[in-house]
Write a structure and sequence with these properties.
Blueprint (H helix, E strand, L loop, with lengths): L2 H5 L14 H13 L1 H5 L4 H6 L7 E7 L4 E7 L2 E8 L10 E10 L4 E5 L6 E4 L15 E5 L8 E5 L5 H4 L5 E8 L8 E3 L4 E2 L3 E5 L4 E3 L6 H11 L7 E5 L8 H24 L4 E4 L4 H9 L6 E4 L2 H14 L7 E3 L6 H4 L2 H7 L4 E3 L5 E6 L3 E7 L9 H23 L3 E6 L6 H15 L6 E3 L7 E6 L6 H5 L15 H18 L4 E6 L1 H8 L8 H9 L2 E6 L9 E4 L4 E2 L8
Parallel strand pairs: 1-16, 6-10, 13-14, 16-17, 20-21, 24-25
Antiparallel strand pairs: 1-2, 2-3, 4-5, 4-9, 4-15, 5-6, 7-8, 9-10, 11-12, 12-14, 18-19, 19-20, 21-23, 22-23, 24-26, 26-27
């Protein structure tokens, strides 16, 4: 693969959208009648709303400040999702870069790509869908909805050629960010470029029409394919997003035309930009979230900034003009999030313990490898038998866990330790309830049934750091572990340090610098034998001048040689 083929798309001819014939329209009308029975049995969220089932009140609150923009999604007046964007940490998912391969790692089947940022981007062979594959392998295409991320992703299964045969150091390449930097890792990128619209995703250098797996109705899926296929521009693949469910032919056609025009503009930028360069920046957070969530089920959108309000109204007029009247400019004196009591919920969001109904609670612990959630009955003792109390606690816990995952934007491998239940029927009901609550989440995921140990394991898509990581930083004392060494342990460490110094017989006079609280612990309370420092000096034949320093942590101490005032802490820190 040369540079030219890795950067530029194949020459796309006849990109105009084909006309839809009268015969095709007549066929669609007949098809709709034929599928009327299937539509009645549709169990999708949109179908449920139209069939008169309990409607959830949904509101979107947008708070625009000088230093950050916050967007809160409320369901039945309860906060379920929060997104935060700050100028110094803008969202990157969906951005397209023209980069250069800095290093190919055959042993990891991956490569690092210089995209002009502090950290090189990580490209794995599984994210290189358009590269050649082994002739003897078959390819299976699956589609899942991307929610608020860049697009619905295409998962390609099959044996690919070795990455070292497809890429080489210094090669120019076009990539799109699919996962933001997390901790010490740089962004993850893909060579599958996709341009998301409201109803469809356009995939250059591809073919065919695919439908999101979240559209459960077979009849609706078939309807969308029959409408979109004649509209598909040559040289492009199209993916019908979840929001395309129920969309009209006119709406789908307008969306495809917008995306085609956007791609033509991007092609010109690709050809003229140097390396590395940002080719396309995703819409700001407010517009991208509105694009992904606004539909007939959204009752209200409230924004407290006049300029952003005008921009949002103009955007909604393009993509969903019938919903324009649901956008309101907030003019109240009370801050928007205080008015809707969102601020109170945000203050609890970093808590490790989360209270649920009737005194039960969750304990949420984040580690590098996984997230663990423990369910406890707490003060809830129930009114009937023990099994019923545990079952009711677990059901409420499942609902709250699903909400917390969305609210805190937690992802990766998650293990939920529910309280053990003897009844298999109760375990099944717990699993079904948990699955139903997780289905409300726009992030992709998978969940396993309750294990024999009462555990439920699940995964949730993680494309950016959780809000807990964004809102906080590791403790300078415990480095994020949540535990610090006891004073007795610190006294023992100091004792061992002076034992090593005594064995070396190099110095006899020292200054010991410690936190005032640890200093008090060393000198004792005046009772016989409580002065630990005096014992250290006597046993090791040294003189120690104790110095109290409020700036030093309880977890550390410093020792200086008294004559030259030179720090020697590291010298005798360990054997």
């Amino acid at each position: 693969m040369n540079q030219e083929t890795s950067i530029q798309s194949k020459s796309i001819q006849n990109t105009s959208i084909p006309e839809v014939s009268t015969a095709t329209r007549s066929k669609k009308v007949a098809q709709k009648k034929k599928e009327a029975f299937s539509a009645k049995r549709d169990t999708s969220p949109r179908a449920q709303r139209t069939q008169g089932e309990t409607k959830v009140k949904r509101e979107l609150l947008i708070n625009v400040g000088d230093f950050e923009t916050r967007i809160a999604l409320l369901e039945d007046d309860r906060l379920v999702e929060l997104s935060v964007e700050r100028p110094e940490n803008e969202r990157m998912v969906g951005d397209i870069y023209k980069g250069k391969i800095s290093k190919v790692l055959p042993g990891m089947q991956s490569a690092f790509v210089d995209i002009g940022r502090d950290k090189a981007a990580f490209l794995h062979s599984s994210d290189m869908g358009h590269l050649p594959r082994d002739k003897n392998s078959s390819e299976e295409l699956e589609v899942s909805d991307g929610g608020d991320d860049v697009s619905d992703s295409i998962v390609r299964k099959g044996k690919r050629v070795a990455i070292e045969r497809a890429l080489k150091d210094g090669q120019e390449i076009l990539v799109q960010i699919i996962k933001e930097p997390i901790s010490t890792k740089g962004p993850r990128v893909s060579t599958d470029i996709s341009i998301p619209g409201r109803y469809v995703v356009m995939v250059p250098d591809s073919s065919g029409v695919r439908v999101s797996k979240r559209i459960s109705s077979w009849g609706e899926s078939r309807r969308l394919r029959s409408i979109v296929e004649p509209m598909r521009p040559e040289g492009f693949g199209l993916i019908c997003r979840t929001e395309s469910e129920g969309a009209s032919e006119k709406e789908l056609l307008a969306d495809i035309k917008r995306l085609l025009k956007q791609w033509e503009t991007l092609k010109q930028t690709i050809d003229t930009s140097p390396v590395p360069a940002l080719i396309h920046k995703e819409q700001d957070m407010a517009l991208s979230i509105v694009r992904d969530v606004i539909n007939e089920s959204m009752d209200h959108i409230v924004i407290d900034d006049r300029r952003e309000h005008r921009q949002l109204v103009a955007y909604v007029r393009q993509i969903a003009p019938q919903l324009r009247d649901r956008i309101e400019l907030y003019k109240g004196e009370t801050p928007l999030f205080d008015k809707y009591e969102v601020e109170r919920e945000l203050e609890k969001m970093l808590d490790r313990r989360v209270w649920i109904k009737k005194g039960a609670y969750l304990i949420i612990d984040q580690t590098e490898a996984m997230l663990t959630i423990d369910v406890n009955t707490g003060r809830f003792v129930g009114k009937k038998d023990q099994e019923d109390t545990i079952f009711r606690t677990n059901i409420e816990a499942a609902k709250e866990i699903a909400r917390q995952l969305r609210l805190r934007d937690l992802g990766g491998l998650i293990v939920c330790d529910f309280i053990d239940m003897y009844s298999r029927d109760n375990r099944r009901k717990l699993y079904e309830t948990f699955k139903k609550e997780l289905a409300k989440d726009r992030a992709k995921g998978a969940v396993n049934p309750v294990s024999e140990f009462g555990l439920i394991e699940l995964t949730r898509q993680r494309v950016r750091p959780s809000l807990v990581q964004a809102f906080s930083e590791p403790c300078s004392c415990c480095s994020g572990s949540g535990r610090v060494l006891s004073r007795e342990t610190m006294r023992a460490k100091i004792d061992r340090w002076f034992q090593r110094a005594h064995q070396a017989r190099q110095y006899r006079d020292f200054h010991l610098v410690v936190n005032p609280s640890l200093a008090d612990s060393l000198v004792g309370d005046g009772e016989p034998g409580s002065n630990r420092l005096r014992t250290i000096m006597k046993q090791n034949s040294v003189r120690v001048n104790l110095v109290r320093d409020t700036l030093i942590s309880l977890q550390e101490f410093k020792v200086f040689e008294a004559d030259k005032n030179v720090e020697v802490t590291e010298k005798y820190q360990s054997v």
